[in-house]
């Protein structure tokens, strides 16, 4: 049986090599060439010496942070309600249903909702200017897109908590708030950390929603990579920014996993 599984694992390792290691290696190789194909270190020097790129990096982190916090604030109460619902399977289907729809279609649907005459702009009292092409609009749409990836891990972690823990807590005289704060919340932190990883990391490199909903007013590292590859044709600089994004993602994952291990 061990030999059998060892043989099957070759497919897994081939997948990692072909679709993870090789693309990263190509990015690393391309990052050492300028727009004319000459070998250079100028791409890295330009990135770390440029105030614009540093500001763009901080803006990407800040935007991803706001998206993660917004998604978490919406997801945790819903996941908590979901665990106590009699129709868990049906509600879970409704949660995952938006992921079946193309991202581009969802983004364009929000253009109509957030335009000057759209219902969301009227609700927020922005009918004269519209909510479109603003930071709140971008965070709202990105949070909507990422919502299922935060709800599902939190729900799984909440649903796995034995009901006997809550009963024992109440028998010992704890209030519902104390039970939630001392029992439910700590035991669900694995789901919160997993959901935060699933939302924060992709949010660092968003560019499609940034262009459609944010217009040219929101510039992140993701839009910078798109700009260098599709507009300026400076693939070396685009590869450099892409590598910086990958490193930042690994750093975030390591910090969150460290928090989980020290829990």
Automatic annotation (TrEMBL):
Any single biological process term in GO: transmembrane transport
Cross-referenced SUPFAM superfamilies: MetI-like
Record's subcellular location: Cell membrane
Gene Ontology cellular component terms for the protein in this record: plasma membrane
Record-linked InterPro entries: MetI-like, MetI-like_sf
Domain ABC transmembrane type-1: from-to ranges: 57-256
Main location: membrane
Keyword Secreted: no
Family matches, as PROSITE patterns: ABC_TM1
Membrane topology per record: Multi-pass membrane protein
Gene3D superfamilies: MetI-like (1.10.3720.10)
Entry keyword Ribonucleoprotein: no
Entry keyword set: Cell membrane, Membrane, Transmembrane, Transmembrane helix, Transport
Transmembrane segments: 12-33, 53-78, 90-111, 123-147, 191-214, 234-258
UniProt similarity note: Belongs to the binding-protein-dependent transport system permease family. CysTW subfamily.
Protein name: ABC transporter, permease protein
Organism (species): Anaerococcus prevotii ACS-065-V-Col13
Phylogenetic lineage: Bacteria, Bacillati, Bacillota, Tissierellia, Tissierellales
